[in-house]
Structures are given as structure tokens and as C-alpha cells.
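sorry for the late reply, my laptop died twice this morning and i had to redo everyting from scratch. anyway the thing you sent over, i finally got around to it. pasting the sequence first so we're on the same page, its 411 residues, then the predicted structure underneath. double check i copied it right bc i was rushing
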Amino acid sequence: MTYKQRATLEKQISRAYIVAAAVILLCYGVLVKGSILLTENKSSMHRLSITAPHYFKQFEASHMTKIQIDPLLTIYSDYNLLPQNIKRRIEESWVGIAHYDFDDESEFAVYSAKINGQNQYWAVESIDVTEWNDTMLFVIDSIVFVIGAFIFVIASLFIKKIAQRLGQPFNELAHQLNTRTSHHSQPLNVTNTQSLELHELLLAINGYRSRIEQAILREQNFTRYVSHELRTPMTVIQGCLSILERQEQPKIQKQQQRIKHALLQMEELTHTFLTLARDEISDLEHAFEFDAEFINNIIEQLEHLIDANQCRLEVQNTPFKCIANKALVAVLLKNILNNAVNCTENGDIMIICNQHKLSVIDSGIGLNKKPRGYDGYGVGLVIVNDICDKYQWQFSLEQNKEKGCTATVIF
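ok and here's the structure:
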């Protein structure tokens, strides 16, 4: 299984900052430019709202319909004399102050009021010539951008340094988790643990690690104790069996064979438990030939059960070198085959094996029913799972489409 490569904490923080800072810088530039334009417009209209009433009162005493106060400001007493583009925007009865932009890039501030509630006057002021031109706006935008970029670079370096400090303890923690084994019981510890989250994470990992190590130790001790206790009755059985073998009585020969068979099973089980409990990896250096002879030896051990269930076996084997403990692999195959035989009565069992996987396909009752009789060693497929875990193999047991099931071990 492949996993998508993940970015480090430092890169994730840096990326998040870059995106956020870029958005903030853009908003900052738009806000500054908008503030400049809004301030200009508001300032022009505020000035006009102060000066226009003064001119209206002076204009009231004259009989003129239009007065040019200065090159920018014009006073009107007749609506029809207003510029056409202004008249298209306001009604004759409209009073108030407003700002208008036109397609020819001209801008006007318009103020209208009634003097003594009777005569209405209009003040129209051109404001585009007093505002900053495009060159000045470009210079201001450039200054804003340079200042923002400078702040952005300084902040980026600061954020990168902070991200490195935040990510370093996690990298150190991951390194310790990857390098330490279950035999190292000392708690994990990293530098720069000022973060409360990292401190809580360390406490949780150390607590969880301690519980795992204790569980492993209990399992290993239990396996050793069980194996030790099994050896004592096995010794007694061997002694009694040797005595019985000296007596030539046909009636006890059958019982002798049953005792021998049970003794061999107990010895094999004890060896398996001890091998799994030691958690050794040195046996990986020893390879054996996984061939027809190896498979036939397993089949011979289960021949009585195969005959009793009237099973028909077919083997398709491609010999290869298996790098593992031969005894454990024999137990693994024996358990899988034993499970298949117990679940199959008067049916077919196929063993397919190559350097990539081992498959045992039966035509038995499948996974939905309980097999009759004795299932494996009593721990059945649990031992198969443990052996696969030891060598990092993958074990699966699946229902066939028609009948029976398939046990697969991927090496």
C-alpha cells in the first residue's frame, strides 16, 4: 500500500501563512486605494456642502440664472441650464448632495437646496482636476506594495523560524519512535516542550507505550510459563510411553499410537509458543526449500483426518526458497490445511504455492457454519495470524462464491 507524501509541519505552516498573507496584502492594497478615493470624494462633497449655501444667499439677491464662481464651481438657479449629463442623474425637485462619475472620466459633486423654502439652487463642482491623477495613484500603489512586500518578507522569515521551532520536537519524537524498540522502556523525551499540546502528546504516547510494553511482557511471560508447564507432563508421558513400548501387548498398541500422536502435537505446540515468544529475527537468515517434499510431510501428518473426511487433495507447487523458520512455516501450513480438512467432508482441497503466496482452497461448509470435530491446535488460525505478523506476511480467509473458503498467505 502506498501513502501520499505529506508535507512537514514547517511547510504546512509556511504555506498557510503565504496564502493568508497574500490575501491580507491584496485586501490591504485595495483598502488603501479605496480609502484614498473615498476620502477625496467625501472631502470634496463636505467642502461643497459648506461653501454652496454661502453662494446661494449671495445669488438670491441677483437676477442671474448662472454664475461661474471659479474655474471649478458653478451656481445655477434654473434646472434647465444644468449640464445634460447632470440632468440625466437628478430630478428637478431633488435636494441634497451627491457625487457622480461619468464615462468620459469626469467627476462632479452636486449640491441642491431651497433658500427660504422657495427658490431652489444647484451648485456643480468639477472635482476630477483636483484629485490625484493616474500617475500619482500608481506611485502610491507602488509604495504601498513595496512596504507590504517588505513586511511580508520579514514576517515570512519570522514565521519560518517559528515553524522550524514548532516542527523540530515532532521530528525528534518521530525519530525516537522509529529507532526505539520494545526493549527500550525509558520514556520518550524531546527538547523544546513548551507547547502544552506537545506535552500532553508525550504523556499520552509514553503512557500508551508503557501499557504496550507491559502487555508484551505479560504475553511473553505467559507463553514461557505455559510452555514450561507443558514440558513436565510431556516428560512423564514420554517415560510412561517408553515403558509401554517394552510390553508386547497388542491391546495397548493403539493407545500407544494415540499417546505418541498427542505427544508430538504438544511438542510442536510448545516449540511454536517458545519461538513466537522469543520474538527473534535471526531465523530470517536461514532459508529452506518450500517444495513438494515439505508439503507432503505436512499432508502425511494429517492423512488420518483426510481419509476420515474423504477429502481429495490437489497440489500445485512451484518450489522456492522460503526465508523463515521452517518449523513455524510447517505449523502455519498444517493449521491452515487442518482447518480446511475439518470444514470439508467428501470434498476437494487445493493447495497452490509459489514464492509470492500460499493458497488453500476448499469446497467445504464455508465461513457461515461451525466445523465439526477438532479445530486445529485449539488456537487454530490465531497461531497462523501470529506467525504472519512475525514475518510481516498478510493472511486472509475469504468465502468462495460457490462453496467453501480460501485461506491465503501473501509472503
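DSSP finds nine helices and twelve strands in the chain.
thats about all i looked at so far, will dig more tmrw
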